Amino acid sequence: EVQLLESGGGLVQPGGSLRLSCAASGFTFSSYAMSWVRQAPGKGLEWVSAISGSGGSTYYADSVKGRFTISRDNSKNTLYVQMNSLRAEDTAVYYCAKSFSGDHLADVFDIWGQGTMVTVSS
Amino acid sequence: DIQMTQSPSSLSACVGDRVTIICRASQSIRRYLNWYQQKPGKAPKLLISAASSLESGVPSRFSGSGSGTDFSLTINSLQPEDFATYYCQQSDSIPITFGQGTRLEIK
Predict the structure, then answer these.
(1) CA-CA distance, A119 to A97, in Å (whole number)?
(2) Which one in A53, B47, B94, B103 has a CA-CA gap of 20 to 30 Å to B34?
(3) Do residue B96 and residue A114 have CB atoms under 8 angstroms apart?
(4) A71-88 burial by CB neighbour count: b if 16+ within 10 A, else e?
(5) Per-residue pLDDT tens for A56-112?
(6) Strand pairing partners for B97?
(7) To the nearest whole angstrom, how far is the Cα of A61 from the nearest Cα of chain B?
(8) Which pLDDT band holds residue B25 (cuts at 50, 70, 90)?
(9) How many angstroms separate the CA of residue B15 from the nearest CA in chain A?
(10) pLDDT of residue A37
(11) Which parts of A1-122 are beta strand (E)?
């Protein structure tokens, strides 16, 4: 079964840092681009970042550029996002999502994790 | 960035009704338009990709159409499990963008 499982969320103070992980199983992880998508409480979906299958190409939304870093460890089938300089507006459920078409960064997301909540508050 | 605008933002309907949700892109996205369903506390679920390609396991009462800038999602004969929030998403270019969502409620 194809599955994504996020972890690492929690409560952090403004200006703090957090690293989220997404463990993948059931597919050839290195063959697929992956993304992070977030959803603030009661709000819509916002794409955050994407990474190619090799990890050699990365893209970010303007709202997180310079503060978030996406990465992956294909030997561990795990996707990461390092979040620094966190702000109250980063409070959201963070989902990892698998690209449908392989190593295509702008893509439809066919598999989503269950999400992990990040709360930025003092 | 490509802006995605959905209408309506919310919609009330009865079981058995037919409803249509519209999604408009700020520039042509060819047919790179996808639809997701999200229920409270759950991750989004892919319903339709490439404007009209129904995902495996999705009931045939769901259908999508459109190309360029104008797209629609139609649900025929609404079932109780269809009441949820629906999002469109463009996958034509980075940054990927979503519509603001359409909340479908029971009348």
Answers:
(1) 20
(2) A53
(3) no
(4) ebeeeebbbbbebeebee
(5) 999 999 999 999 999 999 999 999 999 999 999 999 999 999 999 988 888 999 999
(6) B90
(7) 6
(8) very high
(9) 25
(10) 98
(11) 3-7, 10-12, 18-25, 34-39, 45-51, 58-60, 68-73, 78-83, 92-99, 109-112, 116-120
Q: Which residue has the tokens 């909340």?
A: B103
> Quick one: closest CA in B to A60, which residue?
B95
Residues of B in contact with A110 (CB under 8 A): 46, 49, 55
CA angle at A70 for the pair B37 and B51, rounded to the nearest 5°: 30
Going by their DSSP bridges, the two strands B45-49 and B97-98 should be labelled as unpaired
Pairing of strands A10-12, A116-120: parallel
∠ at Cα A6 (B6, A118), nearest 5°?
A: 70
Amino acid residing at A47:
W
Say how far apart CA B91 and CA A47 lie, in whole Å.
Answer: 11
Strand partners, A117: A93
